Amino acid sequence: MIWSFIKIVLFVAAVAALTLAIGHLTETGSGIRMSFGNMEFTLGPVQAIVAFLLLLVAMWLLLKVLGLLVAVLRFLNGDETAVSRYLDRNRERKGFQALADGLMALASGEGRVAISQATKAEKYLQRPELTNLIMAQAAELAGDSRKAGEVYKRLLADDRTRFVGVRGLMMQKLSEGDTDTALKLAQKAFSLKPKHEGVQDTLLQLQASAGDWKGARQVIGTKLKQGLLPRDVHRRRDAVLALQEAREVFSDEATIEAREAAIEANRLSPDLIPAAVLAARSYIQGGKPKNAVRVLKKAWSAQPHPDLAAAFAEIAPDETAAQRLKRFEALLSTTPDHQESRLLRAELNIAAEDFPAARRALGDLAETHPTSRSLTIMAAIARGEGEDDALVRGWLTRALTASRGPQWICDKCHAVHADWTPTCDNCGGFDTLSWRESAQASAPMPNGADMLPLIVGKPSGGNAELTGEPSDGSDAEPEEDILILDEEVGQKARN
User: Fold this and answer.
1) pTM of the model
2) How many helices (H) and strands (E) does the chain have?
3) Distance between CA 155 and CA 175 in Å, rounded?
4) Can you list the positions of beta strands (E) in 350-426?
5) For residue 131, what are the CA distances in angstroms to 68, 118, 189, 229, 449?
6) How confident is the model at residue 342 (pLDDT cuts 50, 70, 90)?
7) Between 449 and 204, where is the model more confident?
8) Distance of alpha carbon 168 from its chain centroid, rounded?
9) Would you say 219 and 207 are in contact if contact means Cβ atoms under 8 Å apart?
10) Residues 142, 111: Cα–Cα separation, whole Å
11) For residues 411 and 438, what is the distance between their CA atoms, to the nearest angstrom?
12) Using an 8 Å Cβ cutoff, are 325 and 352 in contact?
């Protein structure tokens, strides 16, 4: 408010001073006299002021004309001028308009229109890092993979867009089924942007498919450091990968490193059944049966599984059926009421020809939760106790249509697998297999016709080996009957 008042006062004072000055000049009658050759001009005070103002305007116009001429000369010479800046702004406006139209066409699914607009934008803007991105995506949308590949290769020349080019080529190779090249491109993309979650997942899947377990462990380690993977999930998946590393080199002549890898996998995830089995076999080969028992008991208490029982049987392969039944008590006592423990106890009693004990161990499983395995065990018990053949065949008939029991099933696509694998054979999902019962009763049974997998070894007296051949000078009819039942069920299941 005060400043506005001050400006008004100053303006009035200036007008008043100018008025007084003009009045003074008029009263004195003085003027300005100018002579040019033979010509003489006399100007009064007011005329002189007007002439001075006109001279200033003429000089201003002259300077503007001279500036315009200089600008034209500079424009013709190629220098930046107001004219060139105007034309540049006009081109930039058209370019960004074409870019916006291209993005709209891309979002609308009009691939050809997007390519045309991207080409137009490139013509006006000369910004390939922007226009090539739209052009590549538009070419893919239009189904022109060749043009998209060319654009992605052009992106490789610029450091700012190299990652986009590598990733685009990687996705193209994946769609073409060229996993070897896609793996190399994924590794390159990972080296450029190790924090990119999509590239991490793609690289992990490709490495798992290619059997590069060591590289896959490095990738999930990076995901853990970046907080993209929970610690418990990382521990589980690292155990899966460590297990596969051990499996790749595990054999009868396994090195110390291979055995340590198997044990490390079990340490990382004790409830991972294949890791526990491999670690136990590693201890068995190393002459450490007590350690094998400890590993298997810990895994059994977390999740009873037939593979754990089979590995437990390998600790003493030459024992009799009675000795085996007694030794297995240490394993069965950890989860006595679990379905797998009851089935296993029944099988061991059948191997020992104690059919009443087998029936007591099985209990009412054949009625409350009938599966092919429990019903086949009931058929074996009925045959061993001398029941009528019609009753035995009735149990077997029910076994053919009953649920197959727990199997390795993919949590992602629900595909059933005979054996555990780190990746699903159907959908390629990593660490998606879990031991559970399938809703499909007609799914194939694991291990085919091996309905009684633990009737093994060299039983004494009237027992027989797994081959079904009786011992010398002994009556092996009950054992032979069980094996005949097993073969009959297996044959019907295959048919």
Assistant:
1) 0.59
2) 22, 5
3) 20
4) 406-410, 416-417
5) 37, 5, 21, 35, 62
6) very high
7) 204
8) 16
9) yes
10) 5
11) 11
12) yes
Q: Phi first, then psi: what are they for 406, rounded to 5°?
A: -65, 140
pLDDT at site 114? 82
d(CA 345, CA 350): 9
Residue 45 CA to residue 50 CA, distance in Å, equals 9
Q: Residue 322's closest CA among 286, 348, 291? A: 348
- Give the residue among 364, 302, 354, 305 at the shortest CA–CA distance from 325: 354
Beta pairing, strands 416-417 & 406-410: antiparallel
Name which of 175, 176, 206, 209 is nearest 189 in CA terms: 206
Residue with tokens 């009658």: 29
Can you say whether the dihedral through the CA atoms of 119, 125, 129, 130 is positive or negative?
A: negative
Residue 172 and residue 148 in contact, taking contact as beta carbons nearer than 8 Å: yes
327-354 average pLDDT score: 92
Is 416:395 a contact under the CB 8 Å cutoff? no
Q: What pLDDT is attached to residue 238?
A: 81
Tokens of 320: 């009799």
Biggest distance spanned by C-alpha atoms of the chain: 161
* Nearest in space to 271 (alpha carbons), one of 420, 444, 453: 420
Per-residue pLDDT at 257: 60
Could you read off the pLDDT of 84-119 as tens digits, one per residue? Answer: 666 677 788 888 888 888 888 878 888 888 888 888
pLDDT of residue 22: 67
Whether residue 455 is predicted with pLDDT greater than 60 in this model: the reply is: no
Judged against a pLDDT cut of 60, whether residue 393 lies above it is answered with yes
Q: In whole angstroms, how large is the CA radius of gyration of the chain?
A: 45
3-state class of 40 per DSSP?
A: strand
Per-residue pLDDT band at 484 (split at 50, 70, 90): very low
Q: The tokens of 489 are what?
A: 């069920």
487 pLDDT more than 60:
no
445 exposure class (CB count in 10 Å sphere: 0-12, 13-18, 19+): buried
Alpha helices (H) in 108-193, listed in sequence order: 111-125, 128-141, 145-155, 162-176, 179-192
Q: How far apart are CA 351 and CA 405, in angstroms?
A: 22
Tokens of 312: 């437990």
The DSSP element (H or E) to which 434 belongs, if any, is strand 433-437
Query: Considering only 215-229, 255-269, 315-329, which range has the smallest mean pLDDT?
Result: 255-269
Give the three-class secondary structure for 229. coil
Mean pLDDT confidence for 425-449: 68
